[in-house]
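Sample 3 of the quickstart, ligand guanosine-5'-monophosphate:
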Amino acid sequence: MFGIFGFSMYSEFIQKLNKILGGIKSCVIIPHKNPDADALGASLALSIFLTKKKINTNVILPNSPPSYLKWMLSGHEVISYEESPEESKRYLSRAEIIFALDFNSLKRIGLLSHEIEKNKTQIIMIDHHELPENFSTVFLSEPKIGSTCEIVYNIMKSINKKFIDKEIATYIYSGILTDTGSFKYPLTSGATHKIVSELFKKGINHTDIHERIYDNFSFDRICLLATALKNLKYIDKLGVAYMVLTNKTLKKYNFKRGDTEGFVNFGLRINGVSLSVIFIEDKNENLIKISFRSKKNLDVNRFAKKYFSGGGHKNAAGGFSKDSIHETEKKFISSIHEFLK
Ligand code: 5GP
Ligand code: MN
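Result:
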């Protein structure tokens, strides 16, 4: 249930955390950049929980969330470093502890990492990605658990389960739902489902959460998906499918961050495909953002790390390329041939 480190690692973490929480009055919670429902859900759930423990808690996002997750923020004072750097610095300077949620490498919080490095405040990392980097003294790294929300739920339950209310349960469910691919990915477990049944007892409305997250496309977004699918490329002898979205196409459909969320999964629906990839041109950051999804034993974490400066999980990873879209596609074709040899 508690991943590769086993139960003793977990109880040691809870002990340390309890001790730390007993001695502080304020903290900051930071999820990764371009937050998804797991990162946001875990941060907001923990924030409400710590507030109930009379700890002044501020959530600082490296940048603002995509529009399909804006509903999660309503009623909460959450700031983004990109929009409010000075206020973020003020919160950081006051915090006695920083929680790092749903990332295990400071690269994943972009420019906010420089503030953290200057700050020297103790960091507590809670995460489920492979190969954690060494930036926190107290951490819980559980790569065998499907979402950070599941880990945060276990932690809150150990500390004080009475504090877990409907709102916390809603956030936790949102993160579990999305990071397990709606309970489909291999890391989804009986323990995951048991937690979900506990969340149901808190009165969550799972249909409503599903609709807010998934059934909320703008017409432009559907057109963007249609274009991506129409141009899908398929290398049948390798079982590889990939899509390319150029800046021109993105502009045509008024692309907003988050609009391409989930597109990459469509490639996996093809019978015989074990790797699906999407390349998205990002003119602002001057790079190509890449997402990888795989089935079974094809390890995209290793592939993304080796060829595209990225990482993530065995079946879902990301990376980037600084080359042109054409060069990136060429590099991908040759590297995937080499990788699958
Ligand atoms: P996505 O493709 O949805 O952006 O990310 C899939 C998974 O890979 C997520 O767990 C995410 O945290 C991870 N990931 C995405 N991009 C990167 C990256 O550039 N570097 C690393 N190390 N992980 C990434
Ligand atoms: Mn996650």
